[in-house]
Design a protein that fits this description.
Elements lengths: L2 H32 L4 E19 L2 E16 L9 H4 L13 H30 L1 E3 L9 E3 L1 H5 L7 E5 L10 H8 L3 E6 L2 E6 L4 H10 L5 E3 L11 E2 L4 H5 L6 E5 L2 E2 L3 H10 L7 E5 L2 E5 L11 E2 L4 E3 L3 H28 L5 H4 L3 H7 L6 H19 L7 H14 L5 H32 L2
Antiparallel strand pairs: 1-2, 3-15, 4-8, 5-6, 6-7, 9-14, 10-11, 10-12, 12-13
């Protein structure tokens, strides 16, 4: 990985985490202030020994730490990672967290998770409002699927038309591999030359699919016979083809003067291009049109010869649609975590990762749509992980507060201190393990 690529991916990761952390901590900060609870510090990133920047306004010190592993708000009278035993040894003051009613403390603690969930819903809604939702319907692939050697090894063939998976319809082609992984699928039903065929998925297949997906690939793709013309049926927004004025149903006739009467010849010529700008001759209706697209860094036009459907949303429609998308992403993430415990084909050492793995999710080029989609997904992950009932996380504090509300008995401060220490040890261990796996893979390529 080049230095430029590291800076692009790292920059996107840091910006995304900064947004998520600041808003998460605001979720604690705002209700704390509303309930007249003193907040001593509000920090983006951690600041052991020193901070990069700090300023004090009123009773709160605002700052930026040097260790980009999160952030925090230090609330007076609360047992947290600061482990301020000196303050806790003093009698409770009216402005301290521990002096507030349990229901107020509960609202303060769930504020961060609430903000992260709402943020994800909002981002998804705005994406749908501005871009709509585009997908490739499985039933609209005229030539069926193309399979690699892995797909052929289980009995799939080029031209098969997928009808269902485990006898359940999957409408979106792009979701098929993920659906199979999350649900541990056992069979694929296909239409082969008009005849129904049931393909059995053997043990070990799902794990190999996951390996392909880690590299950005898939074991299936829409099939296009080499002998049919290459027709632009879906033009990606802001892609090279769209910018050059390519229209849906344009038929590719020639690239730099070389005739491209079919898919095979067109793809071959595009692969051979060395220049950034090409001369592209297309047939539009009965007219021949010459275009001069400037290819992207991957040398592609970003034009697909398959039908894709875009569902538009107005502002008011985008809100509930964004909520549904966020819930769907959360459900998928929970299913992924479940696989770590119940699937024989999913290994923790292959699936878990730290900040390096997260950074790899971001694209090689700065793309705001991809950035916001990943930020929304990371916001959901942050919310879910924080609400887990582990001491030192928001969920641990919530668990003890619910116990107090239900039983009327408050856990002793000594117990909370020990629980905080145990939670911090667990979290530090997980952090070292996950990032250690990234380092191991970076060195040994596994």
């Amino acid at each position: 990985m080049t230095l430029e690529l590291i800076l692009v991916k790292g920059g996107q990761l840091i910006l995304s985490l900064s947004i998520l952390v600041v808003l998460h901590e605001l979720g604690h900060f705002i209700p704390a202030k509303l309930f007249k609870t003193r907040v001593e510090k509000f920090y983006l990133f951690f600041d052991p020994w020193f901070s990069l920047f700090k300023i004090k306004k009123g009773e709160t010190e605002y700052g930026i730490g040097w260790l980009p592993l999160g952030g925090y708000v230090k609330i007076s009278g609360m047992i947290d990672e600061s482990m301020d035993k000196e303050q806790m040894a003093k009698p409770p003051q009216s402005w301290e967290f521990r002096a507030k009613p349990a229901w107020q403390r509960l609202i303060i603690m769930i504020g961060g998770v609430t903000v992260n969930i709402l943020l994800a819903f909002f981002i998804y809604a705005m994406i749908l409002w501005s871009n709509g939702y585009t997908y490739m319907p499985v039933k609209d692939l005229p030539y069926g699927i193309q399979v690699d050697s892995l797909g052929k090894s289980i009995g799939l063939q080029d031209g098969d038309k997928i009808v269902s998976i485990d006898n359940k319809e999957v409408k979106e082609f792009e979701k098929i591999p993920v659906y199979m992984i999350l649900h541990g699928s056992k069979t694929i039903q296909v239409d082969r030359n008009g005849q129904p065929v049931n393909v059995t998925i053997p043990d070990g297949f799902i794990r190999r699919v996951m390996g392909i997906m880690k590299g950005g690939g898939s074991f299936i793709a829409p099939y296009m016979p080499d002998t049919v013309p290459y027709v632009a049926r879906h033009i990606l927004e802001d892609g090279a083809g769209a910018k050059a004025g390519l229209k849906p149903e344009d038929r590719m006739l020639a690239v730099n003067g070389v005739a491209t009467p079919n898919v095979k010849s067109f793809l071959a010529e595009m692969k051979n291009q060395k220049s950034k700008t090409i001369d592209l001759q297309v047939l539009r209706g009965t007219d021949t049109v010459m275009l001069h697209p400037a290819l992207d860094t991957t040398g592609k036009l970003n034009v697909l010869p398959y039908t894709a459907v875009t569902i538009p949303y107005n502002f008011f429609e985008s809100i509930p649609a964004g909520v549904r998308m966020g819930v769907d992403k959360l459900n998928s993430y929970v299913l992924q975590l479940r696989l770590l415990f119940v699937s024989k084909e999913v290994k923790v050492t292959e699936s878990l990762g730290g900040f390096g793995s997260i950074a790899k999710l971001f694209p090689d080029q700065w793309n705001w749509l991809d950035f916001w989609q990943l930020t929304a997904f990371l916001s959901i992950i942050l919310a879910f992980m924080n609400i887990l009932p582990i001491p030192a996380l928001d969920g641990g504090h919530v668990l003890f507060l619910l116990y107090e509300i239900i039983t009327g008995r408050k856990p002793s401060e000594k117990f909370l201190e020990y629980a905080q220490i145990v939670g911090m040890v667990i979290l530090l261990g997980l952090l070292l393990f996950a990032n250690g796996l990234d380092i191991w893979r970076g060195i040994f390529g596994k």
